[in-house]
Amino acid sequence: MRTNNQQQPPTISVVVIEDGAWMRENLDREINRIEGLRCVKTYRTAEQALRGIADDHPDVVIVDINLPGMDGVACVRHLKTVVPQARCLMLTVYEESEKIFNSLLAGASGYLLKRTTTPELVEAIRQVREGGSPMSSSIARKVVAYFNQAGEKKSNDVATLSPREQQVLDLLARGASSKEIASQLSLSVETIRMNVKHIYAKLHVHSRSEATAKYLGQFPLGIPQAAKQN
Predict the structure, then answer these.
(1) pLDDT tens-digit profile of 15-27?
(2) 183: left (phi over 0), alpha (psi -120 to 50) or beta
(3) Which of 95, 125, 145 represents a domain boundary (last residue)?
(4) pLDDT for 89-111, tens place per residue?
(5) How far apart are CA 9 and CA 141, in angstroms?
(6) Contact 119, 98 (CB under 8 A)
(7) Do 18 and 87 have their domain in common?
(8) Last residue of a domain, one of 120, 145, 170
(9) What is the CA radius of gyration of the chain?
């Protein structure tokens, strides 16, 4: 009999907030089919979720934008207070730039379309749990376009970053977790966390999503040379 002494990663607990019965039940079923994931609760409205979610202790919350009553963007904003440890992942049919931008500002860590396949969704849940910021490719392009059209380029802010901070921010923008960044740059996780803290202060932002959005808006055509240097 083969024994496996390798410690298994902890199960990722997921809560789904979705008003469509078919989609809600399908997400519940698909998530619970995957080893290492568990859908601990589903809610039809933001109001129901905000009343009960603190007892669910979720790692990841999947939120639809078009909820009845309080919409998904406002829901995410409140969730950051009620369950601050949870990562919010938007899953929606909407591709409008304003909805995407507002979701990121509210504190969402990722934004996927409902046509996303189950394997892609599973990978996104794992990425966002590790601190990544998964987005559908079309959504990422719209984030860049939104900042270009809105004229939100903050060259002075980004220019204040050191070459190392630009390296870290570029990897953040690509969805890497602090652990992955530390490994790639041969630094400690604590050093990366300190770099991230300095980046937030210099860019005048309060979350990974805001920093990523500002960086993508500043460099839509490629990575600056400073970020490519070792």
Answers:
(1) 999 999 999 999 9
(2) alpha
(3) 145
(4) 998 887 676 777 778 778 888 88
(5) 33
(6) no
(7) yes
(8) 145
(9) 18
